[in-house]
Amino acid sequence: MVRSPAPPGPGADERSWSGQDGGARGPPPGRGALRRAIGLRGGAREDQGARDRVKIHEYQAKEILRKFGVAVPRGYLAVTPLEAEGAARQLGGGICAVKAQIHAGGRGKGGGVRLARSPDEARQHAEAMLGMMLKTSQTGPDGQQVRKVYLEEGCRIARELYLGMTLDRDVGRLAVMASVEGGVDIEEVAAQHPERILREWISPLTGLMPFQARRLAFGLGMQGDSVGAFVRFATGLYNAYVATDASLAEINPLVITVGGDVLALDAKMNFDDNALYRHPDIAAMRDPDEEDPKEAAAREYDLSYITLDGDIGCMVNGAGLAMATMDVIQLSGGAPANFLDVGGGADEEKVTAAFKIILSDPHVKAVLVNIFGGIMKCDVIANGIVAAAKQVGLSIPLVVRLEGTNVELGKDILAHSELAITPADDLGDAARKVVQAARAA
Ligand SMILES: Nc1ncnc2c1ncn2[C@@H]1O[C@H](COP(=O)(O)OP(=O)(O)OP(=O)(O)O)[C@@H](O)[C@H]1O
Ligand SMILES: [Mg+2]
């Protein structure tokens, strides 16, 4: 099993460290590099396995951190240039940062972070940013549309550092990482100079100990009052991480100001969606504009769906069978376009929804339906397939392999549907047929 993703759920972990997918196809370079470089294994698996991590914007992460005593600059959100100008005035009318709010990093290099010297200039920057398709190394070739900007008071930076936190599954503890190489591409640093990343692992019994935070502070070359400020900062970040069931917290850059203050200039937080029911406030922070519409639709119907970069759409019941199906497709020389588990008790409506989601992906050239009828009956599935195919006007090859309860009834429904469905006898046969169909398309 090489490229199959872990099913969404407890087995999955952070998809990227500092990276984000933004619905882009195929992994951008460097994804998971930091995790691997710092010795957190499983980068490749996590790259594909954590599509369902909950992401929020920088301004929202800062809102949360503020509540936990983490020092962040003052700031206001704006959705129009005029609001941006007003926000800049609220901030005192001096130098402020205008920051595009999209779920992707690397904004600075792409023109998504600009300093303004006056409210007038802040308005102009906002004018240029709002509505633009911001392209960064993490957005994919089309970029992501900027719908909101965050106005933040300008900060006189003496040093830019890095501080991150995530679960190290091998050790079973939270790992805290810090580096003097903040602000730049931390993944590159991790890959080229792993020794420049300092690490501490936190015991769940004690939490982050002050001596650990101090050790990081000294390792970062801090002196005087900054050490205490850093300890308070790291402790606040840790408390926020645990209290919100986060899966990633990343401050890049963490700055030391000319005055010696320690501040979060950027903030990224991801959350474990299995725990989201405990945090309605965080659930409400979800921004549908930033999510893959297919994955958002799947969530609505309670389907486990993950976009992948191949061209064969898959509809399967059961996570294990879905993974096996993807493996066999790859073994036959093809590449799955998605992971989709319709679940054990799917009904016709759910199957129809799943089918529509698969077909809405323009990369899909052929579809393989592989269902084992246990709790779910094959005739129900067959009816769902026929209904969906008729509704959406199926125009690409469809290979169906059914097995289990009411299989003969199911096959009969498909055979009499007047749809061009290719039946398959077993999984190997189905995979060969669908790969062939995708190639011919
Ligand atoms: N409030 C501010 N005052 C002064 N400079 C700032 C401020 N906010 C950001 N900057 C500068 O802009 C740079 C980029 O900002 P930031 O890290 O928020 O965006 P980014 O490029 O998207 O980063 P990432 O790739 O980590 O998401 C910072 O390293 C910092 O030098
Ligand atoms: Mg940053």
What is the compact description of this entry?
The chain is an alpha+beta fold. The protein has 15 helices and 19 strands.
Outline the secondary-structure elements.
Layout: H1 33-37, H2 43-49, E1 54-55, H3 58-67, E2 75-78, H4 81-90, E3 96-100, E4 113-116, H5 119-129, E5 133-134, E6 144-145, E7 149-153, E8 157-168, E9 173-179, H6 186-192, E10 197-202, H7 210-219, H8 225-243, E11 246-257, E12 262-264, E13 268-271, H9 280-283, H10 293-300, E14 304-307, E15 312-316, H11 319-331, E16 338-341, H12 348-359, E17 366-373, H13 378-392, E18 398-404, H14 407-415, E19 421-423, H15 427-440
Parallel strand pairs: 15-17, 17-18, 18-19
Antiparallel strand pairs: 1-13, 2-7, 3-4, 3-7, 5-6, 8-9, 8-11, 9-10, 11-12, 11-13, 14-16
The structure holds adenosine-5'-triphosphate and magnesium ion (MG).
Structure description:
By secondary structure, this protein is of the alpha+beta class. Helix content is 35%, strand content 22%. The protein folds into three domains: 33-55 and 157-289, D-amino Acid Aminotransferase, Chain A, domain 1 (2-Layer Sandwich), CATH 3.30.470.20; 75-153, ATP-grasp fold, A domain (Dna Ligase, domain 1, 2-Layer Sandwich); 293-440, Rossmann fold. The chain has helices at 33-37, 43-49, 58-67, 81-90, 119-129, 186-192, 210-219, 225-243, 280-283, 293-300, 319-331, 348-359, 378-392, 407-415, 427-440, and strands at residues 54-55, 75-78, 96-100, 113-116, 133-134, 144-145, 149-153, 157-168, 173-179, 197-202, 246-257, 262-264, 268-271, 304-307, 312-316, 338-341, 366-373, 398-404, 421-423. Strands 1, 8, 9, 10, 11, 12 and 13 form a seven-stranded antiparallel β-sheet that branches. The chain has a four-stranded antiparallel β-sheet with strand order 2-7-3-4, with helices on one face. The protein has a four-stranded parallel β-sheet with strand order 15-17-18-19, with helices on both faces. It is elongated, with a radius of gyration of 24 Å. The two termini are 26 Å apart. The model is unreliable at 1-31 and 41-52 (pLDDT under 50). It binds adenosine-5'-triphosphate and magnesium ion (MG).
